[in-house]
Amino acid sequence: MNTPQMELARANTISEKMKIAAAEAGISPELLRRNIAEGTAIICHNNLHHGGRPLAVGKGIRTRVNANIGTSRDDNSIENELKKAETAVAAGADALMDLSTGGPIDEIRQTIISKTDVCIGSVPLYQAACDTVSVPGKAIVDMSVDDIFNGIEKHLEDGIDFITVHCGVTRATVEKMDREGRVMEVVSRGGSFTCAWMEHNQQENPLYQHFDRLLELVRPYDAVLSLGDGFRPGCLADASDRAQIHELLILGELTQRAWDAGIQVMIEGPGHMPLQQIAANIQLQKSLCHGAPFYVLGPLVTDIGPGYDHITSAIGGAAAAGAGADFLCYVTPSEHLCLPTAEDVHQGVMATRLAAHAGDIVKNIPGAMEKDLAMSQARKNLDWERQFELAIDPPLARKRRGETTSADQHGACTMCGEFCAYKIMNSRKTQ
User: Fold this and answer.
1) Domain of 397?
2) Closest by alpha carbon to 377, among 389, 365, 366?
3) Domain check: are 286 and 391 in the same one?
4) pLDDT tens digits, residue range 80-106?
5) Interval 10-26: pLDDT, tens
6) Are both 381 and 334 inside the same structural domain?
7) Distance CA 239, CA 166 (A)
8) pLDDT < 50 stretches in the chain
9) pTM of the model
10) Helix (H) or strand (E) run with residue 109 in it
11) What is the SS3 assignment for 272?
12) How far apart are CA 418 and CA 266, in angstroms?
């Protein structure tokens, strides 16, 4: 059995995965080893993900971007999901999550893994739920504990690099939510499955009650546990309430237990949240979860942006990354409305990459500010090819420039033309 990366790091051993991941991240293997040993960085790579590239996430590393894809029962085309996967990777996503719940979900997951070398995550509880309801007369609440763990094992066997598990959704947390009251209660799909299961069966969440079994199951694969935020706020009014914070307290305790077993962990976070609460939430997570990498959805800073939620998410994502979040899950223009198209995926990745980069400048990630300085110099020099090269979306920048027929007449853009401030100021040096 392969020794888990956390145990190797604690033994002062720099593994081949650490070398590969560190080179991609632009940091030293020794720095990555130290951070993995203390739990502030992780390497996402299942031992069975043959051909997959190890991905470093966490302290001292540029903010990573994940793109969610996956079928539903209304749209279960493998071809569409493959196109979205290819689009996300081409747009610069560091990871993909397959959240499929419709069609041949095993085949979809296996195909996505085989067709790309990026980091892949999933929510195995969806597998257990879909397998259960495929049996006539059965509902999600009829899942057995073994069904849940068999779903996890199936994903790990396929080579999934990180799995979202809603271990912090407990009966006590549900009680706190009910007592305080929420506008939207539970908006996490996996969280809602778990709440319904606990209520129907009058039992504790199996992933919390049998957490040691989960650790034993994950260990041979060295996959990362992404401790899910089942009580993430689904609207601004629910942000930072008792249920959300109580779940975070539980996740902090489970993080320590996972580390004791040599299992790498990251923590998932909100959600919808007012802008002024974001930094405090990041600081709270880092404190309660001992500096474990933080993986956030958005946060979306307003609830009125359907059709533009990639923008509401990017605003919050920039604030979160700047405050210390390590991994941003994208949001597309389709959020809250429908399954995203490939173009939605592209826009979501680009918006989130901009947010991540803005955060990296705040965190002083090496090379981040240098990119902006290089762009400024290219703009001053009216060096359009260099600007296209440095742009986050070069094809779009080149296309928009090419749409203006008189753009090259003055060497400037058509906003100012011959009155371009760069041209005027540059001419002072030639007179």
Assistant:
1) 368-427
2) 389
3) no
4) 999 999 999 999 999 999 999 999 999
5) 999 999 999 999 999 99
6) no
7) 18
8) none
9) 0.95
10) helix 105-115
11) strand
12) 53
